[in-house]
Amino acid sequence: MGRARPLFALAFFLTAPPAFAVQRDDGPVRQINIIVYGEDRCPESEGPDDAVVCARRPEEERYRIPPGLRERSDRPAEIAWGTRNEVLEEDARTMRPDSCSVVGSGGQTGCTSSLVRQWAAERRARRGR
Asked: What is the span of the domain harbouring residue 108?
């Protein structure tokens, strides 16, 4: 009697379907994502295993650069050209003579100028408060 119970349990587990078995549907073999503009038709799928997904955009967007490429989020678009110029000059200052830097041919000559610029900026900041 004690031996029949484990054999019965073993036979039950071998013949019963597993509880975690899930019917798996792999879906389409190939999926095509297309953007259509205006009244253009969405193309038909080429076979039963293909899925075509169409996104519709207005006609005036057809030849424009995509929004993700034309809008840069790292800097606002309303920066004045003078401010942009100052930023570029400041970034390039390390490559010029009088830069107080080890980079560039005349970098060692500008340490005093750098200290004077820093002092003037701090003074303007204190006056602005």
From this structure: 96-129
Question: Structural domain tally of the chain?
Answer: 2
Per-residue pLDDT tens, the chain, 129 aa: give them.
555 566 555 555 555 555 555 555 666 678 888 999 999 999 888 888 888 899 999 999 888 888 777 766 666 667 788 888 888 888 887 777 777 777 666 666 777 777 888 899 999 999 987
CA distance from start to end of the chain: 94
Query: In terms of Cα–Cα distance, which of 118, 117, 97, 119 is closest to 109?
Result: 97
Asked if residue 125 is part of any domain, the answer here is yes
In degrees rounded to 5, what are phi and psi of residue 43? Answer: -65, 150
Nearest to 100 by CA among 85, 89, 115, 86: 115
